[in-house]
Amino acid sequence: MIGLLHQILSGLVTGGIYASVALALVMIYQSTHHVNFAQGEMATFSTYIALALIEAGLPYWGAFLATVMISFVMGAVIQIVLMRPMANAPVLSSVGVFIGLLLVFNSITGWIFSYTIKSFPSPFEASRPLLGGFLSPHELGATVVTLAVLVAVYLFFRHTKLGLAMRAAAFNPVSSRLVGIRVGHMLALGWGLAAALGAVAGMMIAPVVFLDPNMMAGILLYAFAGALLGGIDNPAGAVIGGFAVGVIENLGGAYVVGTELKLSLALFTIVAVLVFRPNGLFGRVLVTRV
Amino acid sequence: MPKLLEAIGVHAAYGASKVLHGIDFMVEEGGVTCLLGANGAGKTTTLRAISGMVRTSGEIHFAGARIDGRATEDIARAGIAHVPDGRGTFMELTVEENLRLGAYTRPDRAFRDDLAHVFDYFPRLQQRLHQQAGTLSGGEQQMLAIGRALLLRPRLLLLDEPSFGLAPLIVEEVFDILHRINREQRMSILVVEQNANLALAISERAYLLETGRMVMAGSAADLASNEAVRRSYLGF
After folding, report:
1. Residue A282 pLDDT
2. What ipTM is given for this predicted complex?
3. Which of A22, A135, A235, B186 is the most buried (most CB within 10 A)?
4. Which of A252, A161, A97, A13 lies closest to B102, judged by CA?
């Protein structure tokens, strides 16, 4: 029983990471109707930047903030330089660009920072276990940071004028232009935010799984499973889906398939959702009258 | 009355298919102008040309500045609100969010004051404020679209077939309100309509478009009494 509780709790911790990446995927999906396969590699690259900044002598939270900002700019620049010219291109061209981005980021990361596995520091370093040994300080701290970021993103989209304009631009770009919204700017902002979210996820998971250029490959799969489970067009659903996949993965790994086959649970989830509930658990059912 | 909008020799095309073949027209400040024509004559395209939503050549002047070739969002910011064909509702968002978006370019305080005016014209929107806009009836969505456009505080209101798909009673209500908006706010309006009777009744100037060419221009009364217009478009 204690073991089960432990598995669920640590599932929720990694689930928070999946939720962040799933939200990043959904944000891009809503405005472009494409899944950014490079989201994970971009996050890995950001995490290496954070490590470089820390090694250069910056305090952890200084490096954290700088990394978030650098990642935001990087995401926005990618949208403006690479994705904007693809706006009217066929689906396969966009998919090609996403796969290209994935390979480019993966190779650049390995080339600049080397392919050897590195450890990444945690800001939550007290060695004594918390909550009666259920969670390490890093697990608890990472969850708090992840939840804080998710809440901040929610408040931004729900309660600010800019957030509303970004949602409008994603749903209906034509009408958005007619009310004076600069849709191109909103798309660049969306990419920036998605990249920043990925960067936070990368920095929070790196102390657990260690840093190497392929760190996010598996995480992206879990996140994608989470996004599909919750509904690829529903940000809140994707976050819930991300947490759910974290728990499913941990319980399945511990009691059903064993740790080696954990990743197959993500693939199984993806297939099951696509077969039985293509809109996901909370997929938006749009009510329209004509 | 001074000219607010003037189009000179405007051509427009979607890819290789040309829709407008060098049309001239103008909208007077504070007046209602209507653009009549059959399906496929190029009425919607004319409005899209003004809003920069289609590739054009020729000149379009608005309030003393050339606006052809400018981005749609800049034309909106210059003071042209466009209620598009199909109403352009943000279906996924609430009625309130739709209205907020109308006032996107304006300060928050102005929004609250202007919203009271919109509710004055369309009390039903106030009751539906927190409802998902996609669940509104066609008439309510048309009202929402006009309300959204008013919140931009435009100098010129473009309306694309406001009667489309609405019950006759609702159509009359919408046109009554448009007439009020024109008189009370001295709002200049360019309306595209297939329902020529209603459109001519609230307009001062009128144009008749046939397969991408202006075939008639004059006062609304002139067009209403013209034999050919009566037979083809007014149905008596």
Report:
1. 79
2. 0.93
3. A22
4. A161
Smallest CA–CA distance, residue B47 to chain A, in Å, is: 12
User: What fold, for A2-276?
Assistant: ABC transporter involved in vitamin B12 uptake, BtuC (1.10.3470)
Whether A283 and A56 have beta carbons less than 8 Å apart is answered as no
Domain ranges within chain A, ordered by starting residue: 2-276
Asked whether the beta carbons of residue A168 and residue B101 sit closer than 8 angstroms, the reply is yes
What are the chain A neighbours of B134 within 8 Å (beta carbons)? 286-289
Tell which of B70, B85, B90 to mutate to test the A interface (max A CBs under 10 Å).
Answer: B90
Which of these CATH numbers, 3.30.465.60, 3.40.50.2300, 3.40.30.10, 3.40.50.300, describes B3-87+157-234? 3.40.50.300
Among A166, A171, A179, A185, the residue to mutate for chain B (most B Cβ within 10 A): A179
Alpha-carbon gap, residue A230 to A219, rounded angstroms: 16
- Within 8 A of B101 by CB-CB distance, chain A residues are 164-165, 168, 175-176, 179, 181
pLDDT for the residue numbered B93: 94
Q: What is the pLDDT of residue A22?
A: 93
What's the whole-model pTM score?
0.88
Distance, in Å, from the CA atom of A173 to the CA atom of A185, rounded to the nearest integer, reads: 12
Instruction: For B29-86, write each residue's pLDDT tens digit.
Output: 999 999 998 888 999 999 999 999 999 999 999 999 999 999 999 999 999 999 999 9
Q: How confident is the model at residue B236 (pLDDT cuts 50, 70, 90)?
A: low
Low-confidence ranges of chain A (pLDDT < 70): 125-133, 284-290
